[in-house]
Amino acid sequence: MNYIKIFSPATVANVSCGFDALGLALETVGDTMTFTKTAIKGVKITQITGADLPSDPQVNAAGVVALAMLEKHPVDFGIDITIHKGYTPGSGLGSSAASAAGAAFGVNQLLGNSFSPLELTQFAMLGEEATCGTPIADNVSAAIYGGFTLVRSYEPLSIVKIPVPADLRVVAIHPQVEVKTKDARDVLPKEVPLKDAVTQWANVGGLISGLHTNDYQLIADSLTDIIVEPARKHLIPHFDEVKQQAIKAGALGAGISGSGPTIFTLCRGDETAENVYKTIHNTYQDKQIDFNMILSKINTEGIKILSYKL
Question: Is the pLDDT of residue 214 over 90?
Answer without folding.
Answer: yes
